[in-house]
């Protein structure tokens, strides 16, 4: 009887141990599920905050279209970065960047044909930043639908298939600027030099002279002095005196030399504007010590704004791009 009672006691103790282990396992699993659920909840909450930031920035563009239909410039409310907006356990901040302040790579080929003036403009811009202007040939070949090589630096499938690993030309408009790194002649260094001045929006987009940089505007003509253009840009931004029509640009001392008798004004004016249609909203949500990013490419037509592309990759700091642009400008002025 004593032996039987001992065995029963050991069995009960063994069952208690097993039950305790199982209970601890269930408790740990529940804690993990709660933690994972909390993370998913925070992610969903951050996404909602980010979309709300996009909506708010879109409303700024709509209000701007209603109240200021003559031009878009950097003194307007949409161009100012948003201060951090407090939310539960975090903040939301954002800003709008004018994509029309850059040269659109897809201007080179549109409406079924190459654009001669846009092609020449890109060549001058490449030269301004220290790259070979002939690289515009490979940029055009990357997006035009034919297999005909343009010039000595052009490239089609026969060139790209010979790379390691091999690939083919896109033969379509650029979907994003980073795609340029796949084009012949563009390594990381050359891409970094040109990246601050280019964009890739789906439709023909003229450059807004009220928001463009001096480096970009100096590509209007090889005869322009970048130091004089920079001085005009400084006066434009500091004095908040913006153009109400493109033709006024040619009356400015820095740009008078660009109007040659053998260069029809309409050919250059077609590439320039005083209003913007394409913008990029950059939103950062800081929640519970974590950050979530949303970059939305926006198209504004009249008083309607549409997001045509979104991604959630980390947003690069502007400091490096601005510093790079400043260094390029200083080098160009010295030359």
Automatic annotation (TrEMBL):
It is found in: Cell inner membrane. One of its GO terms (cellular component) is plasma membrane. Residues 207-258 form the T2SS protein K second SAM-like domain. Keywords: Cell inner membrane, Cell membrane, Membrane, Protein transport, Transmembrane, Transmembrane helix, Transport. It comes from the Bacteria. Its main location: membrane. One of its GO terms (biological process) is protein secretion. The keyword Ribosomal protein does not apply. Residues 101-202 form the T2SS protein K first SAM-like domain. The chain crosses the membrane at residues 7-27. InterPro entries: GspK (IPR005628), GspK_central_sf (IPR038072), Pilin-like (IPR045584), T2SSK_SAM-like_1st (IPR049031), T2SSK_SAM-like_2nd (IPR049179). Belongs to the GSP K family. This is Type II secretion system protein K. It comes from Alkanindiges illinoisensis.
């Amino acid at each position: 009887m004593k032996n039987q009672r001992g065995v029963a006691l050991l069995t009960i103790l063994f069952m208690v141990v097993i039950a305790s282990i199982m209970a601890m396992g269930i408790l740990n699993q529940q804690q993990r599920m709660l933690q994972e659920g909390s993370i998913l909840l925070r992610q969903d909450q951050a996404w909602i905050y980010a979309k709300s930031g996009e909506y708010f920035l879109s409303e700024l563009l709509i209000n701007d279209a209603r109240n200021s239909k003559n031009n878009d410039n950097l003194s307007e409310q949409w161009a100012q970065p948003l201060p951090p907006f407090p939310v539960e356990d975090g903040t939301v901040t954002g800003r709008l960047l004018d994509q029309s302040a850059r040269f659109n790579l897809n201007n080179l080929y549109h409406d079924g044909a190459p654009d001669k003036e846009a092609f020449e403009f890109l060549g001058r811009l490449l030269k301004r930043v220290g790259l070979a202007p002939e690289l515009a040939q490979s940029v055009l070949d990357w997006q035009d639908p034919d297999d005909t090589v343009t010039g000595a630096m052009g490239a089609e499938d026969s060139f790209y298939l010979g790379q390691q690993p091999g690939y083919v030309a896109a033969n379509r408009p650029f979907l994003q600027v980073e795609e340029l790194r796949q084009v012949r002649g563009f390594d990381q260094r050359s891409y970094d030099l040109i990246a601050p001045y280019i964009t890739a929006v789906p439709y023909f987009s003229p450059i807004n002279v009220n928001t463009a940089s001096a480096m970009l505007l100096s590509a209007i003509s090889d005869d322009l002095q970048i130091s004089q253009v920079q001085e005009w840009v400084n006066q434009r931004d500091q004095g908040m005196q913006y153009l109400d029509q493109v033709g006024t640009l040619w009356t400015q001392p820095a740009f008078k030399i660009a109007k040659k008798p053998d260069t029809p004004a309409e050919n250059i004016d077609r590439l320039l504007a005083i209003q913007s249609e394409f913008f990029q909203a950059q939103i950062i949500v800081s929640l519970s010590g974590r950050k979530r990013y949303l970059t939305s490419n926006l198209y504004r037509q009249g008083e309607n704004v549409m997001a045509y592309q979104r991604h959630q990759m980390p947003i690069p700091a502007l400091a490096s791009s601005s510093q790079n642009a400043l260094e390029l400008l200083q080098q160009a002025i010295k030359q």
